[in-house]
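F.,

This is the one I mentioned.
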């Protein structure tokens, strides 16, 4: 099945589409990727990213990436593509005194804004604007002024997210800001690798290798940044996916156990009961 846009894409900076099976590889603009009713898997730079409900992916201008969608039912995508230099222009307007903006309104003195490429959980800055844009977009086709205003608003919100990310970097103890930033990027790549491949039998060495860090270095930095171990994160992620499958499908409990990455049904049942207060079978009966 090929990509099925809900409306003609033309040169619009928004892609609103549905697809069950899709692959694309190339270079893109600064963009926000969101998906519903399934997920898409991206490979970009050294990172592997799974994007579904509850998160969005941010990729920088000029990044080479590939996207793969393999699903039984169509996955809904809603992706925003920003014109080149828009975020730089907005950043300049926010940090430059008014009198200088009047004297030199078009110069782009600040360098490119280098966003951290990772999946971001739904937040208070960007997510509400994305939901509002998606709800209104279909009724605003052809209204270029409205669309430009929405892109400027989203770009400004992206800069708020960018500032928040730099605050999170302070959790890492390095004295040099450049070292903290690089560590943050690498640990985030490892975190996204786990999110993308949680259902597979991945190891700490493999996760750390994806982050280009030694296992011990990754483990220490991951705990500092996320407040839990990689194993704890993987366990919670697998349990939440098992809960979703128990509520939404008729798949057998044994198959759910194996499909989310657990190897022992008895161990899975015990972990599930401890986390959600009922065994998988009793939990399913209550739905």
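My design for it:
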């Amino acid at each position: 099945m090929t990509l099925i846009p809900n409306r003609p894409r033309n040169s619009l900076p928004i892609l609103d589409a549905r697809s069950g099976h899709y692959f694309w590889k190339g270079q893109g603009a600064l963009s926000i990727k969101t998906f519903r009713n399934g997920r898409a898997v991206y490979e970009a730079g050294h990172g592997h990213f799974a994007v579904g409900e509850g998160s969005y992916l941010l990729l920088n201008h000029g990044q080479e990436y590939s996207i793969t969608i393999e699903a039984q039912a169509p996955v809904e995508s809603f992706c925003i593509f920003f014109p080149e230099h828009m975020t730089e222009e907005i950043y300049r307007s926010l940090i430059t005194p008014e009198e200088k903006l009047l004297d030199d309104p078009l110069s782009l003195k600040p360098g490119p804004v280098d966003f951290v490429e990772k999946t971001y959980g739904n937040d208070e800055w960007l997510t509400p604007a994305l939901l509002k844009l998606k709800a209104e977009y279909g009724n605003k086709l052809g209204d270029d002024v409205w669309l430009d205003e929405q892109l400027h608003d989203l770009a400004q919100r992206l800069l708020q997210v960018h500032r928040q990310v730099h605050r999170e970097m302070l959790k890492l103890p390095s004295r040099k800001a450049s070292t903290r930033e690089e560590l943050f990027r690498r640990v985030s790549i490892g975190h996204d690798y786990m999110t993308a491949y949680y259902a597979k039998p991945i190891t700490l060495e493999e996760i750390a290798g994806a982050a280009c860090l030694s296992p011990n270095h990754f483990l220490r930095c991951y705990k500092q940044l996320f407040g839990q171990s990689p194993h704890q994160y993987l366990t919670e992620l697998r349990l939440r996916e098992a809960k979703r499958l128990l509520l939404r499908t008729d798949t057998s409990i044994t198959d759910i156990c194996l499909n989310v990455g657990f190897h022992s049904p008895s161990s899975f049942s015990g972990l599930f009961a401890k986390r959600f207060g009922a065994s998988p079978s009793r939990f399913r009966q209550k739905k």
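The chain has three domains: 4-86+111-168, 172-227, 233-286.

Talk soon.
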